[in-house]
Amino acid sequence: MINFSRLGKCLVFRSACRFRLVSMALAVIPAGLFPSAGRAGIKDSTLTVAFDARPRSVDPRFVSTDANSQYLEPLLFLPLFGFTEAGEPQGVLAEKYTFSDPKTLVIKVREGIRFASGRDVTADDVVATYQFILGQQQGQLPASPRRGVFERVSSVTKTGAGDVQFSLSEPDVPLVSNLVVGILPREAMTLPPDSIFPDKGFESGPFRIETQSDGEWTLIRNEKYSGAPFGGAFPALQKIIFKIFPDNNTRYAALLKGDVELVQNGLDTDKVVEFINRRRVTHDVQLGVSDSTTVLAFNLKNKFLADVRVRKAIGHAIHREEILKFTLQGMGRVADSMFPSGHSYHFKNTNPLKYDPRESEILLSAAGYPDPDGLSGPKERASFSIKVPLNRERIAVAKAIAGQLKKVGLKVKVEVLEFNTFMKHLNDGNVQAWISPWTGYKDGDHLHFVFHSRRSPPMGANRGFYANSELDRLLDEAKSERDQVRRRELYQKAQAIVAFEHPYVFLWHRTGNVVTAKNVAGFKTFPDGRYTSLTNVRKR
Fold this sequence. Notes:
alpha+beta, about 25% helix, globular
């Protein structure tokens, strides 16, 4: 196990790293801040990267909440905005922007950036993409899962040769940080999901899709890429192969064998420790604080879990420190709220759930679930199931939690599902409880997406159907509030409600990790786990 108190917040072998979490200020970063490799002297090469699950969709109209889809999207399709290393919005296709009034955002689309077909990306393409997401160009196609994020956008129109106007029904302060949708050419809007590639030339990012299957996605360099430096440097790599290994052990074996050269947050923690302690001759390891929060979440339509006393009892029965130490090798910090310390919207919970099995038993009895035959008896107070995706570490955590809950008289069935099946069960509400991480959050508006009563699927990620009218009011007000001090106060109050009602048991903030073969240089890690630095990777 690693002593992180000695190592500090970031540990890197062979390269320097410092992850930072700072407050967000809306800004467009000057082009000079971005390195551009240029085309001169680029050596053709291939990199293999391991993913834990097949991306569900990289069609920007239908990208949902699975991380792998979100990671690939900006490599293929440039958005209006991306993010700096510090998590602040920066212009990509957006050259500049202004709020002419609190309900009108005008964006100047950058000239000279082209799709792989050779056609310029224009304001018309931006308008068509966002009109589709709003349901205004949808036709007979499925609704976009991104629509809920833009509920306050009433229209998107072209107001000049290169100007796009977003008209709002109410002020929407985090709007710019949400304009990360990859832009498609307007002629793509009539095509069914995921029929936009390959060989149509719709990509504007540094890579294009060559092939895709359940086991492997291959991206090739976009030789007509013209988005540097705003969308990343012109790639040094000719090809990136993303190999899909749902099983952690298979991913680990592939890395050892050389079939995979880069794995980010995809190894069991004991294997990461092994690479640090025993395999530094063949591999480099980077560790750092990540924007990641693992939670035990509840479906509040379930009668048993709808009682806040039950949810609180479950929280008191889980020994998170013990699981972190023995199952996760100490690679993380106990979480008491959504955002980790250091994040602009971190909430310092003054009354966090502490491990207290006696208090858990008292709460369960008060909720109407007394112990029928004593702790030594075989009968349980109640039972429920926890669903997890096919992931060795997630399964181990679920079983550890089940073992701890058994000590207070709760019988827990751990159900393991293939990842896409797991996500379908979540979105369909076919679940009682589940373990899952949130990653990559930038703004406090993430709470709106996760906890607001209007944000149940497909309009958001409130998969537990949590509802609190006061919380809704606070989150709606924060979405409109331009004064950042007042906005933080609103999110503090909102998180105090969440801390009292426990729609989640916050488990931990994981330590981010990347393991690369020695011949891989230039991959830079970010707290949100993005892969945009692949444009700077070279093979030694």
